[in-house]
Amino acid sequence: MNISNRIAQKHVFRFVSVLIIVWTSAYTTGCGSGKNFQQGARQSVNESPSQRAAISYIPTPNISVDSSIAENAEIANFIKPYSDSLNHSLSTTLAQIDSPFYNTFYTGNLGRLVADYMLLTATQYSMENVGIPCHFAVANNGGLRAGLFPGPVTMRNVFEVMPFDNELVILQLSGGATDSLLRYIAQLTGTPVSGLLLEFERANKPAKNRVVNAKINSKIISTPADLVFLHGSQEQYSGSGMPDSRRWPTNNQSSDGMNQGNNKINMSGSHLPFDSRRDYLVATSSYMSMGGDGFTMLKVAKQTIYTGIQLRDAIANGLKSEFDAFQWVAPRKQLRVYPIKLEDKK
């Protein structure tokens, strides 16, 4: 039975129609009159399409929200129990980390950490609901807005890393769409991935970068322990499942999480060569699935599974699970998307 039939038999898909009424900056310091906004919203919904198109501006006064406005004691007392509960939840420690995780564009180890947790969570979901493992995960650096640094990691830190309400989705991509995705990753000179190893030839212009070798994970990732062994030989581990060395950075690794020297990508292990004749299940964000950050090839997915899981929850649960299992979070030092010269392959 092919992937489409398995998904169709075991999963109900969610399609949402959205009408955007207003768009404002996240850094706005004032807000308009609620009455005028409600009137405008009702008008835009009740009028005919041609009349709605004519509505472009509704005048409304700005109300500055700053320190000059005194706190309302009644409201403050009303929201205090909720505020205290929220602060308690945000202060909950999920893990302790020994090494920094940087959001260095294209090569940062924070992106690799997040992609690992996306793949773990997506595979658990797809196995439970579809009976098929997710093959690999792809994220974008733009969605990650802060790093993680040695010490306790709290839920507040996770919100700082992922402030957006992005949902984890699983896409069924054809071989052709997957090929387009791999080529785009090469043109970007990299993006956060898990379950994927990709070598590309670097050209004088990124748009001309060419995929040389691509291998996709063949292992079913279903337990927290699989996180540590996700790429087997890429990091040195002792028989106990703990890394042999916790030193960061290593001599051939810069402090921004980028590999230096001869620490090249290992194309062996539990990976199979990319096959353009087959479909793949790819974990990504709801934003990227709609073509965000130039990932337009994701919009042509054969099927889309909406997991209902927020990316930040996948990150938080992944951190807690890995730390609980090993009392340590692996630093994800090894590159997964690697530029080469053709003579490197000789």
Descriptive notes:
The chain has one domain (about 95-345): Alpha-Beta Complex (5'-nucleotidase,  domain 2). Helix content is about 30%, strand content about 15%. The protein starts with a helix and ends in a 6-residue tail after the last strand. It has helices at about 5-10, 35-45, 50-55, 75-90, 110-130, 155-160, 175-185, 225-230, 285-290, 310-325, and strands at about 30, 65, 95, 135-140, 150-155, 165-175, 195, 195-200, 210-215, 270-275, 280-285, 305-310, 335-340. It has about 350 residues and is an alpha+beta fold. α5 crosses α10.
Descriptors:
four-stranded mixed beta sheet, 346 residues, 5'-nucleotidase,  domain 2, 32% helix, alpha+beta
Give the gist of this structure.
This protein is 32% helix and 17% strand. It is α+β, with helices and mostly antiparallel strands.
Detail the topology: elements first, then pairings:
Blueprint: H1 3-10, E1 30-31, H2 34-46, H3 49-54, E2 63-64, H4 73-90, E3 93-97, H5 109-129, E4 136-138, E5 151-154, H6 155-161, E6 167-173, H7 175-187, E7 193-194, E8 196-201, E9 210-217, H8 225-228, E10 271-273, E11 280-285, H9 286-289, E12 303-310, H10 311-326, E13 337-340
Low-confidence stretches: 15-42, 220-263
Count of discrete structural domains? 1
- The topology string of helices and strands comes to HEHHEHEHEEHEHEEEHEEHEHE
What is the top-level CATH class? Alpha Beta
Lateral strand order in the biggest sheet: 7-4-11-6-12
Please state the second-level CATH architecture: Alpha-Beta Complex
- How large a portion of the residues is in β-strands, by DSSP E? 15-25%
| CATH fold type | 5'-nucleotidase,  domain 2
Mean pLDDT: 78
**Helical coverage, percent range:** 25-40%
Computed CA radius of gyration, to the nearest angstrom = 23 Å
